[in-house]
Every structure is written in structure tokens, then in C-alpha cells.
């Protein structure tokens, strides 16, 4: 998560409605139009089903109360308006209360293809469709409760599990690989790269491996972990994940599959 941001979240009115500018709605529309044909071919069916349920506005940034209505009916979840950046503690607190944090800003044209901060396109288009799914919703809720109770050190390990599942997870659907990670589904470059490129490794998911795998947020991923089937998220949620965190700590991290980040000259 970046330490600072140029972005400022917008506040909603008493009805939860945000007054987006024409330019902001135009950026959403162009992002949506570019991404939708890519995910139709590559996303898992559970995501596409959620997309159908949410009926996202193609031409304007969706209003969160409309999304909340569907989520509440399907899984008991809600979205929560948050600033552009929140800390781990607040992140876990929200998930533990079945509230999915959505930063209410959208990227600028200068960062149209990539930005480090999770904007409303990433959160709503990338993640909210799957929050209509019971397996994904249950796993995310369980993860939030674990993180809320965890130590600062253990939260760093849990962050890796989230990264390799909720953000950058692949899933086997019959004989095909599909995408369910929101970090991939909201990025056109990574949507293609994750499935079509020969460059990254794609390994079966085991929790202990994910907990031990370093990652960088500012590069195409060198490694993706594959769920054996989507409903395996139910099984993951029932594992003793904190015992696996202790085991991961004793075993140590794997060697990074990427070069260290270059430090900016001061």
C-alpha cells in the first residue's frame, strides 16, 4: 500500500449519493468499455454472475447505495466509503463487519492504465461482483475477523494470503484457468498477462506457500496461485489459518521472484 496519495475521496450526501463530474464519469465509462470484453472471456463464472446481478452503470460511476441493495440481499455485505488510503486495522475492522472498503475517487487520465492506490473502479468493478457469491463473501469475512485479532507482524503474513487470493487469484473451472482476483480483473494488461503470457509461474494454491511468498504491488505478478475450484474458498475459511501463519514464520519467506525496488534518489 502506498504511503501517501495525491487522491482525495469524495463525500456522499445524506442519501449516500456522490456528485461525480462529467470527466470522472467519462473515465469510468472508458475503463468499463475497455475491460468488459476482456473479463467476459477470462473471468470465472461466479464473477460474471455477480456482474449481472449488480447491473453496473456503463456510462457513469455507480452509486454505492445501489450496490449495497444487491449485496445485502445476496450475502449480507455492504460497501463502506473510505479515504484514498486506510491502515490495516481499519481495513480488517471493516471486513470483519461485512463492510467492503471503497475509496470514493477515480484515477486521473495520467494514471489511466495503472495506479497503485485502489480507486472506485478497482473496488467496484474488480471486487464487488464476487461479494454477491457466498463462498467469496464467507472467506473475506473470515479473513477480516482473523486480521482484526492478529498482531501487526501476523497481519503482514495475512496480507500475502489476501494478495494471492482476493487480489491476484486464479481458479480452475473445469479444464480452464479463469480469473477471480480483483487486482487482475480491473487491469487490462494483467487480465491478458495472467492467462495468456508464458512469463509468470502458475502454481496450485496452498495457504502455507501463499503466506511465505513475497510480492510487489507495482509490477506484473511473476507468480499466481490457482484455486482447485471456486467453492474451495469455503474450505480455506475453515482452516486454522493462524496456525499456518505461525508455521510460515518458522519456515521463513521464499526468495523473491522479482528484483528489489529501486530507491529514489533523495
TrEMBL record:
This is Phenylalanine-4-hydroxylase. Transmembrane segments: none annotated. SUPFAM superfamilies: Aromatic aminoacid monoxygenases, catalytic and oligomerization domains (SSF56534). It catalyses: (6R)-L-erythro-5,6,7,8-tetrahydrobiopterin + L-phenylalanine + O2 = (4aS,6R)-4a-hydroxy-L-erythro-5,6,7,8-tetrahydrobiopterin + L-tyrosine. InterPro entries: ArAA_hydroxylase, ArAA_hydroxylase_Fe/CU_BS, ArAA_hydroxylase_sf, Aro-AA_hydroxylase_C_sf, Aromatic-AA_hydroxylase_C, Phe-4-hydroxylase_mono. Belongs to the biopterin-dependent aromatic amino acid hydroxylase family. One of its GO terms (molecular function) is iron ion binding. CDD domains: pro_PheOH. The keyword Iron applies.
Amino acid at each position: 500500500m502506498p504511503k501517501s496519495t495525491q487522491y482525495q475521496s469524495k463525500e456522499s450526501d445524506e442519501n449516500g449519493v456522490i456528485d461525480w463530474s462529467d470527466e470522472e464519469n467519462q473515465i469510468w465509462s472508458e475503463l468499463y468499455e475497455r475491460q468488459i470484453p476482456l473479463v467476459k472471456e477470462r473471468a470465472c463464472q461466479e464473477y460474471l454472475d455477480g456482474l449481472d446481478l449488480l447491473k453496473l452503470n456503463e456510462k457513469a460511476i455507480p452509486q454505492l447505495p445501489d450496490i449495497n441493495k444487491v449485496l445485502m440481499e445476496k450475502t449480507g455485505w455492504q460497501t463502506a466509503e473510505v479515504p484514498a488510503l486506510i491502515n490495516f486495522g481499519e481495513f480488517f475492522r471493516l471486513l470483519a463487519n461485512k463492510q467492503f472498503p471503497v475509496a470514493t475517487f477515480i484515477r486521473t487520465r495520467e494514471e489511466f492504465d495503472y495506479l497503485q492506490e485502489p480507486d472506485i473502479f478497482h473496488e467496484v468493478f474488480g471486487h464487488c461482483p464476487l461479494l454477491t457469491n457466498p463462498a467469496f463473501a464467507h472467506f473475506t469475512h473470515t479473513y477480516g475477523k482473523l486480521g482484526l485479532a492478529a498482531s501487526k507482524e501476523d497481519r503482514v503474513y495475512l496480507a500475502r494470503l489476501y494478495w494471492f487470493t482476493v487480489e491476484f487469484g486464479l481458479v480452475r473451472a473445469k479444464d480452464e484457468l479463469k480469473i477471480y482476483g480483483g487486482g487482475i480483473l480491473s487491469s487490462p494488461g494483467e487480465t491478458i498477462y495472467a492467462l495468456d503470457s508464458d512469463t509468470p509461474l502458475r502454481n496450485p494454491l496452498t495457504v502455507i506457500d501463499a503466506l511465505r511468498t513475497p510480492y510487489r504491488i507495482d509490477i506484473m505478478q511473476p507468480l499466481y496461485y490457482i484455486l482447485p475450484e471456486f467453492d474451495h474458498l469455503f474450505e480455506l475459511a475453515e482452516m486454522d489459518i493462524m496456525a499456518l501463519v505461525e508455521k510460515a514464520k518458522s519456515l521463513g519467506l521464499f526468495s523473491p521472484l522479482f528484483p528489489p525496488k529501486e530507491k529514489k534518489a533523495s
